[in-house]
Amino acid sequence: MKKLQRLAAGLLIPFCCSVPLPAAAKAKPTTAAAKPQTKPAPAPAQQTPKQIVKIAYFAQEQVAPPALSNLDPFIPNKGELGAELAISDNNTTGQFTGQQYELKKILVPADADPQSLFDGIDADLVLLNVAADQLNKLADRPIAKTKLLFDVANSSDELRNADCRHNVLHILPNRAMRADALAQYMLKKRWQNWFLVVGPAPEDKLYAAAIKRAAKRFGMKLVAEKEWNQDYDARRTAQADVPTFTQVDDYDVLVIADEQGLFGEYLDYRTWKPRPVIGTQGLTATAWHRSHEQWGAVQLQNRFKIASGRWMEEQDYAAYLAVRAIGEASIRTKSNQMPALKDYLLSDAFALQGYKGMPLSFRKWDGQLRQPILLAAPRSLVAVAPIEGFLHPKTELDTLGFDQPETGCK
Q: Do residues 90 and 327 make contact, with C-beta atoms less than 8 angstroms apart?
């Protein structure tokens, strides 16, 4: 027993005693008032607000013309979908440049007066898809003096000459540009003798005037000129009447001026002499065509078709270019103010990629967008003007339409 007590005293803790713990090892009592120490959450980073670029799309509904064929249905919203696609493209770039593009659409009924609705637009950048006789009425409104208007629907030569306005930029090629593009290709082919057939509409007369100007400019010869004033249905009687109508002196090509499409489609393959057809039917000069696939155009064609379910038309392409031009100018100037954007758009520094092989730009003297012209048959792209070999001291694009010494715009 004594031995066990000695071992306990030297090595073991006695049963009767408790050994005090060190102060650091004592557990701290917890109370309801005690709270864990936490660091405050960091304040959210301040984001720079995006620069808002407001764009308005102003269009008047068009009345469907008489149906001449079921192959080409009437499209009521030409232009609108092109603007929407361009807004999407602009905002993709705007994510990196700190800009946001907003599109407000104002659609005017066909029987309404567009002028009263135009005064309510709160954007300084406006796309106009209206008839030629309405364009200058809107451009002359007092509220329009502080706006920049983009004409995306008209090809009138007068709107680029005597009736031009300083606050309007024109996107589609005018009739003179289209006629010059055809004349350049005809000169290359040495098809210089023309037979001109003119329709009854006022627009047909204007197109014929552009054809005559191009013929004189490029040394073509008008062998004959006739006016189509037949009141019968060409679909039923063309096979018998067209051969008689086209019995004139020998010529190389038949040039048709029929912007309404009332009879031009029925002359091809029915003429007295076997001759190609050009003008408003046959081989046409256009800003855009569904057969165009070069220079990245096929990607634009596909994206538009997926978004809209149809092919891109000329007005769609024009509205697309107008919105993309605004995007390009706002990115380069870092501004959303109309004066700064207009100055840049009309400067030599501006260049817009239009999927046609050459950068596009605006002419200072009449606000016309310089651009290559597609020469297209109904289902194929034949050529792109300006044709190789036609030179100009500044840009070959100015061989199409009214050059600065020729302009009537004051």
A: yes
Output the pTM of the full model: 0.87
Beta bridge partners of 285: 375
Question: Is 225 in contact with 205 (CB distance < 8 Å)?
Answer: no
Identify the CA nearest to 101 among candidates 323, 307, 342.
323
Find the radius of gyration of the CA atoms of the chain.
35
Give phi and psi for 276, each to the nearest 5: -70, 155
Which pair of structure tokens corresponds to residue 224?
A: 């004959």
At which residue do the structure tokens 């135009």 appear?
Answer: 118
Q: pLDDT: is 14 or 68 the higher one? A: 68
pLDDT value for 402: 97
pLDDT reading at 33 higher than 70: no
Alpha carbon distance 102, 124 (integer Å): 12
Domains and CATH numbers, the chain: 51-173+288-371 (3.40.50.2300), 177-286 (3.40.50.2300)
Higher pLDDT, 62 or 216: 216
